[in-house]
């Protein structure tokens, strides 16, 4: 059972410059909440309470100002500053001490997930004991993503192609991964690519070659959005706005998830309302405790 999770919230955010010159992308708003709330909510829905957030050097206090140590959400949040981006697997090298003897999940700080069966699928993924499990989702343009060719009978990944010009598969590898305890050791064995970064595809292939790379399908009713560009960022914000205003329910309300999980009580919700002040988010929290 995976009880620890890492959010990779560093990176240069160059595709969203000049917005990201002063503020980390994960602190920009997706509708009425900072982007970091969404990947954090995914880990919380999976039942993960021990979380490490990797941030850029010099931006630690910005994250602590909104998230603190996580007590407001019934979780424990630790932080590590990253001197410079070295690729996704570097998260497991930087976080080796945090991971310890446990299995771990990794989610990219700019990825958005939504779906009716999402919580069920997440709780199935954290049951992993050995190997690695990825979450895949169909896309219209596989040439823009890392793509997995899978065996539906045994739920194994047979091949991985990075941004293929031609592909039999339309299943993109999302930014959510579940690894066994060997991940730090394997990450340290990787060599930098032509981009001078450690590549997540190379790490996944180490598991695949040992027949230990499996997958969970997010499904047709689910949504996975990468908020890496300006257009994708605001499309995601519009998606959240439309759903929340139609349903009257919030996506990624961390206090609501924590209350549902039994991690906090109604008095702590009241404290959160005081923390946020008079805003739409607070009014939603008031509805919850009524």
Determine the mean pLDDT: 94
The rough form would be described as globular
Number of domains: 2
Class by alpha and beta content: alpha/beta
Helix and strand run: EEEHEHEHHEEHEEEEHHEEHHHH
Distance between the termini: 34 Å
**CATH superfamily descriptor of the largest domain:** Spore Coat Polysaccharide Biosynthesis Protein SpsA, Chain A
* Biggest beta sheet summary: 7 strands, mixed
CA-based gyration radius? 18 Å
**What is the name of the CATH class of the largest domain?**
Alpha Beta
- The tally of helices reads 11
CATH A-level architecture of the largest domain = Alpha-Beta Complex
| CATH topology heading of the largest domain | Spore Coat Polysaccharide Biosynthesis Protein SpsA, Chain A
Tell me briefly what this model is.
The chain is an alpha/beta fold and 290 residues long. It has helices at residues 37-45, 60-67, 90-94, 96-99, 118-125, 183-188, 200-208, 230-247, 254-261, 266-276, 280-289, and strands at 4-8, 29-30, 33-34, 50-56, 76-82, 104-108, 111-114, 132-138, 146-151, 156-162, 171-179, 213-217, 223-226.
